[in-house]
User: Fold ABC transporter permease subunit from Sneathiella litorea.
Amino acid sequence: MEQVTPATKTRLQRFFGSDVWYSFMRSPVAIISAIVTIGMILAAIFAPWIAPNNPFDLASISIMDGNLPPAWESAGDSRFLLGTDDQGRGVLSTILYGARISLIVGFFSVIFSMVVGIALGLISGYAGGRTDALIMRIADIQLSFPAILIALLVDGVARGVLPSELHTDISIYVLIFAIGISGWVQYARTVRGSTLVEKNKEYVQAARVIGIRPLTILRRHILPNVMGPVMVIATIHLAIAIITEATLSFLGVGVPPTTPSLGTLIRIGNEYLFSGDWWITIFPGITLVVLVLAVNLLGDWMRDALNPKLR
Assistant:
C-alpha cells in the first residue's frame, strides 16, 4: 500500500488538514455564515427553476394581482407566498431574481476592483519612485470622496454620455463599472505594502540576478504571496458592493425599475409602506440584511483565520 507523504497529498487534502479548515470547523458563526451565504447564492443561481413564477415573463403577470398580501393573511393568494408588488409580481420570485442581480453586480464589481487594484498595487510597490507616488496620490484623492459619491458620479457621467435608448440595456454594466472603480484603492494600497516587503526578500533578489523579467517576477513570485490579504478584502468588499448596488437602485440610478434587484424592490415597496403594503419592502430588506451580514461575518472569520499573529 502506497504511503501518502506530504509531497503526494493533493491540494484538497492539504486544505482539509490546514489551520484554516481547523479554524473554520471550530467556529459556529463561520459555519452558519457560510451555509447562509452559499444557500442564498445557490437560490439565486437556480432562481429560474425554484421561483414560483418568472417576474420577467409579462404573459404570466397580471396587474389585477398587484399588492396582494402574503398567503397567510385573509386576502392573500396561495400562489404568492410572500405577496405581490405593485405590478403583480410575486415577492418571493422577485427576491430570488433580485438577489441574483445583486450578487452578479457585487461579484463582478469586486472582480473588477481586484484586477485594477492588484495591478496598480504591484506596479506601484515594485517600480517605486515617481510611478509609486503618482498612483498613491491618485488613491489618496479618491479616498477623500465617499465610494457611493464616486459611483453616483461615474453612473451620472455614463448616462449623460451614452444615448438614452441604451441606458436600460447597459445599466448593469455601468453599475458594475461604477462600483468597481470606486473600490480599487483598498486593494492597491494593501498589495503595494505587501509588494514593498516581498521585493526585498532573497527569492526575489535571486530571480532578478538570474535575469527573470519584472513582469514574470510579479506574476509568479510576488502575486501569490500577497493574495491572502486580498481575499479578505474581497470578501468584505462583496458585502459593501451589494449594499452600494442596493443604495444606487434605491436612489433610482441603478438598475431600471423593470429589473427586480433588491434595491429596486425596497424602493418600490417604500412608496407603498405607509399605505399598509409592508411586505413589498420588508421581505427584500430582510433578505439584503441577512445576505450582507452573512458575508461580513464570513469575512471577519477569514481575516482572523489568515492572520498569523492570531494563530
